[in-house]
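Batch manifest, entry 17 of 40.
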Amino acid sequence: MQRHQNLKMFIETDKRYVSADRPPLPFVLYTVGRAVLQPAVTRPSGYEGNQILWVEKGSGIFNVDGKSMILNRGDGLFCRRGIAHSYKKNGKDFSTAWLSFMCADEILDYYSLGDYFRFSVTPLFISQINQLYSLCLMDSTVLSRSAAGYSLLAEWLTENFEPALTIETMVKKFLDVNYSRPVTLNEISEHTKMSKYALCHYYKKHCGCSIMEQLKQIRIAKAKQMLSQMPLRTEEVARMCGFDSPSYFCKLFKAETGRTPLEYRQKHNK
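Output type: structure tokens
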């Protein structure tokens, strides 16, 4: 751990991980820290690790692979290892923070990342960085830092590159996870950040059925799977699929499938 008035930084010094040709971990946290008064930096041969760098205060002029850009507070730059770059203050104040790491080329390639890209920091990202830095201040291990850093990287890449979920997908995922318990429209409304009326109208228009009808279909589908694959009593299947009343479950199941749960099991267990 390096600490100066202007610089707070953790740096991994275990040569088994930062100097090996093939480190034994998929992600190795190299450095994480911040510079209150960021000096000018010039790296004609790039940096030894992949770097996520962002501006915490003021403004900076960044040059990457021959291209110039200005980054203000809240703007960030990702740069792969070995890519030529430089940066300096653009005005009086210039503070930065960063995270650098070794390896993880597979997940970077999965998202088809180029040599560099700009991004905007989010409160979630800053919170995760602070938690990672706090972990480094403790009596942590290379393995624990690797796991925490890889998780942060995966969530950050998902946040920046995964397409936003549609409302219908958000609802479907919520129902898939929560089908086994009582679910209310108020809960789903809060989850999607839409009013209950607007949500119901939108879902019916785009999916052709109501949310509760969708929930019923999911529960029946799960019940079919359990009845054909597990030696569970009808009452247990009903409870595990979110039905408080076994008799109501049987009535609904027969209305949907044309068979009672027992008849369905006998037919599919032959």
